[in-house]
Amino acid sequence: MKIAQIAPLxxxxxxxxxxxxxxxxxxxxxxxxxxxxxxxxxxxGKSKTQGDxxxxxxxxxxxxxxxxxIIPHHLVMLERVRQRADExxxxxxxxxxxxxxxxxxxxxxxxxxxxGRQDLxxxxxxxxxxxxxxxxxxxxxxRKPISCANFVSTIYHGLPKDLLRxxxxxxxxxxxxxxxxxxxxxxxxxxxxxxxxxxxxRIAAKIDPVDETYFSEAIQPLLSDSSVDFVxxxxxxxxxxxxxxxxxxxxxxxxxxxxGLVLIEAxxxxxxxxxxxxxxxxxxxxPGVTGMLVDTVxxxxxxxxxxxxxxxxxxRQRFEQRFTARRMANDYxxxxxxxxxx
Length: 342
Fold this sequence. Notes:
With 342 residues, the chain is of the alpha/beta class. 36% of the residues lie in helices and 17% in strands. It contains 13 helices and 13 strands. Strand 6, helix 5 and strand 7 form a beta-alpha-beta unit. Helix 6 packs across helix 11. The longest helix is centred in the C-terminal third of the chain and has 17 residues, at 325-341. It is globular, with a radius of gyration of 20 Å.
């Protein structure tokens, strides 16, 4: 198949550090190429792929301080895709809904993976209007608020099997928090859980400009505790030691998480996950096998002993069975083939 992958322009593909959607686009693109498909990646400059790269900006937009509005840049990219649309069997979009009005006339050869939250009221009207645009959800939970949308499948994210290495014998003297510093990720709760459990906490997290006030007012004062180590933003090369050396990953979210890529990154390292029961976590975490699900801080603290007793080899096995990039690519290929057969 000849497939176009259309990625967000905020980060490179793959991103140098934080970036969930762009990371998944990269993993999917490279697996599709390995499976023998002809893939063109429309993405920001500095992106890398074994497929054919069509750079649509010089640099990722996050690295361009003069960019104040990302929409014009995405519209320019979409015009490039439209001009070349006849070259491809299928156009696979990862940019929310920017492309709906432009590509509705060829909806049957488009596929859109929704990477973000879908519980915002304004989206119901959008999906009801564009109910012929085929969509992929990344969890069953993600699609519940928009039952009117044209979902064709749910496909869980996956990681390259050997991207992260498991550690079956960590020292188990600390917990880990990996992600963004923002109110919905609740790093403050992670700090409280670790403190009450009598364990150190290492935090590797990105701070977006919009969250700088939250960090300085709500989180930075908590970092004076000697048991909390804030290491900042990290990339893929640092995730194996960061996650693999931790006794467990804390994921005390306070929002309807569409997937939670860090959950399967921890599992790839053999590291158990303690997650709050929000959004997709009940689909990703298998209680008593790959982690524990809780509803409160008290439950989280009480669950720590059992969490740390879970078999890290089994956690890695479940990652390999459920969440590899090859499985993800094969799932997408089945959908591509179904769409083309129609």
